[in-house]
């Protein structure tokens, strides 16, 4: 007796193939040159299969970024704020230097003119800011951080240099970049 194929399994395989194809193309040829047609051809599916799950290439790539955020980026709480900030910002710096960095850069640029990209980027960034502010609030309660600092501003002070250097200068960042940034600002944040 032969078994009927499981359409759920096949759909998940197609879904994974589509996301992988979109990421690979974005890394190889850039966000702007990546098209739904190219993603479909690389994944071995029809365009209608892609549009069944996502409204655009931005939505496909945002799914990848959401998975990355859920599995690779987190905010530790060892009880030492500076150690935790260094670990988390170094992880972000490493992500920027990886293939996923090319995807994120493309989405950030697309967010300027694409509502789907803008909403997705905003959602991912807001989740990251909430997580960072949660760790900073804990540091305020334990006396590691001045009680009067604006946590939104602290997040901008810490992550601004990383985004600036990565997006605007295009220069390779040394491994110790975030350690230097934190050293430059940390004394002003202490009580």
Automatic annotation (TrEMBL):
Molecular functions (GO terms): DNA-binding transcription factor activity; transcription cis-regulatory region binding
Record-annotated DNA-binding residue ranges: 35-54
InterPro entries in the record: Homeodomain-like_sf, HTH-type_TetR-like_transc_reg, HTH_TetR, Tet_transcr_reg_TetR-rel_C_sf, TetR_C
Pfam families assigned: TetR_C_11, TetR_N
Superkingdom of the organism of origin: Bacteria
Keywords recorded for this protein, A-Z: DNA-binding, Transcription, Transcription regulation
Start and end residues of each HTH tetR-type domain: 12-72
Protein name: TetR family transcriptional regulator
Source species: Virgisporangium aurantiacum
């Amino acid at each position: 007796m032969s078994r009927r194929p499981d359409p759920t399994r096949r759909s998940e395989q197609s879904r994974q193939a589509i996301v992988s194809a979109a990421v690979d193309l974005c890394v190889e040829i850039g966000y702007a040159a990546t098209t739904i047609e190219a993603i479909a051809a690389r994944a071995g599916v029809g365009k209608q299969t892609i549009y069944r799950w996502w409204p655009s290439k931005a939505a496909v790539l945002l799914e990848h970024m959401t998975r990355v955020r859920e599995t690779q980026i987190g905010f530790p709480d060892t009880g030492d704020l500076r150690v935790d900030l260094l670990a988390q910002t170094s992880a972000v710096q490493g992500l920027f230097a990886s293939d996923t960095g090319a995807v994120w850069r493309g989405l950030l640029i697309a967010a300027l003119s694409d509502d789907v990209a803008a909403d997705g980027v905003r959602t991912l960034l807001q989740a990251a800011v909430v997580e960072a502010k949660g760790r900073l609030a804990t540091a305020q309660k334990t006396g590691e951080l001045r009680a009067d600092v604006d946590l939104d501003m602290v997040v901008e002070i810490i992550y601004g240099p990383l985004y600036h250097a990565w997006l605007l200068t295009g220069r390779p960042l040394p491994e110790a970049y975030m350690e230097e940034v934190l050293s430059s600002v940390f004394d002003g944040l202490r009580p």
